[in-house]
Write a structure and sequence with these properties.
Helix content: 25-40%
Number of strands: 16
Structural class: alpha+beta
Radius of gyration: 29 Å
Strand content: 15-25%
Order of helices and strands: HHHHEEEEEEEEHHEEHEEHEHEEE
Number of helices: 9
Number of domains: 4
Shape: extended
Strand order of the largest sheet: 7-3-4-6-1-8
Distance between the termini: 66 Å
Length: about 375
């Protein structure tokens, strides 16, 4: 590509105005405030704006610099579409009069938090449920609004948004999981690069990775060829947060890639027997003594360190074969408020923690003990 002259690269209003005035004969008044100057000033401003928009159009035309709907159009050319948000799901238990029947579509919810400003999150039951002789009944529910906001811990759904007589209480005994937001530009761009830089074809490993990542909710993929003999393929997946995938997500990926083993009714070629399963979790417990800077509270340091560990955990999942003791030490030392640390252990040891092909690290306990700084003479 031919390099453009510098004056075409830097189309500022002043530069455009200067070039226009240079083309006016010297015997004509072109000082600021003159007729010629006043007539050309709006033109220079408009041309400068047009140049900015021309540069912006060019920026939106390349995958690396574009965004939003323009990135959607760019990746669509390669058969890639942005993954939609999916709602969280789980179950709730109703307690009430024995024999009471609740229809599908009954709405339950979490309470709103007036202090934090968090709104109530509503869920609907997916099937009818009749309370047993003990006055209890459990049914599956799904968030009305897709996204991670529907992922809530156990025990927080306790409101009957649809009034039903004969029901005393409702509670989710287990966390609700599986809710994901619309795919981010960063994630979509990564999948685009994976498609064009690592060409998947004829059922090679790269293509199995592409197929799995096309299912909304999948964030990490590892492919194990010939894991159980000839023509067998195992696809290990995580969710978008690099945690073990839910059973429903595993089922969706299985149905997409190979719903009937070896029959070629999904994306996998005929004869390939594909097994999709979730990654296993490897809990990472961290302990250390730390010297804190003046004015820092130990709990705030723990919270900040956990955030850094979460970022590291996601980066190494399905990439590294171990959790590095040295890296965790560096992360702790770089945590705001930490002057120094000693006695750092991971799962009670000073060694790296190995990860198998099917394991992803999960941050467990973080036990930081405040150490007294002593001066040496």
């Amino acid at each position: 590509m031919v390099d453009l002259p510098q004056y075409l690269q830097d189309q500022t209003e002043d530069q455009i105005m200067h070039r226009m005035l240079d083309r006016i004969p010297a015997d004509i008044d072109k000082a600021e405030g003159s007729f010629i100057w006043d007539a050309q000033a709006p033109v220079a401003f408009t041309l400068a704006e047009a140049a900015i928009w021309a540069q912006e159009v060019l920026r939106r035309g390349f995958a690396r610099t574009t965004f939003g709907q323009y990135l959607d159009e760019r990746v669509w050319e390669h058969g890639i579409t942005r993954r939609a948000a999916i709602p969280a799901s789980g179950s709730v238990q109703f307690v009430g009069n024995p024999g009471k029947m609740l229809p599908a579509g009954t709405i339950v919810a979490t309470p709103a938090d007036d202090i934090s400003g968090e709104a109530s999150i509503e869920y609907e039951t997916l099937s009818p449920v009749t309370l047993d002789v003990n006055g209890e009944g459990t049914t599956q529910i799904r968030a009305l609004v897709s996204g991670i906001s529907g992922n809530v811990p156990a025990g927080v759904i306790d409101i009957m948004a649809t009034p039903v007589t004969g029901i005393k209480s409702v509670k989710n005994l287990y966390p609700l999981i599986g809710g994901t937001d619309v795919e981010s530009d960063t994630s979509l761009l990564e999948r685009y690069y994976a498609r064009i830089r690592s060409q998947g074809t004829s059922g090679n490993k790269a293509q199995y990775v592409q197929w799995a990542l096309e299912v909304p909710g999948v964030g990490g993929v590892k492919v194990l060829p010939l894991w159980n003999g000839p023509k067998t393929v195992k696809v290990i997946i995580t969710d978008t947060d690099k945690y073990p995938a839910s059973p429903s997500l595993v089922e969706q990926v299985q149905a997409y890639i190979d719903p009937v083993s070896g029959m070629g009714e999904g994306q996998a070629p005929i004869g390939a027997e594909v097994t999709v399963s979730t990654a296993l979790s490897k809990t990472i417990n961290v302990a250390a003594k730390v010297i804190l800077a003046e004015g820092y509270i130990l709990q705030s340091v723990v919270d900040t360190f956990r955030i850094q560990l979460e970022t590291y955990r996601k980066n190494v999942s399905f990439v590294a074969t171990y959790v590095s003791h040295a890296v965790l030490g560096a992360l702790l030392l770089s945590t705001a408020g930490v002057l120094d640390h000693s006695g750092l252990t991971i799962n009670g040891s000073t060694a790296n923690v190995a990860l198998t092909d099917i394991e992803v690290p999960i941050i467990g306990t973080i036990e930081l003990e405040k150490s007294i700084q002593t001066a040496r003479i």
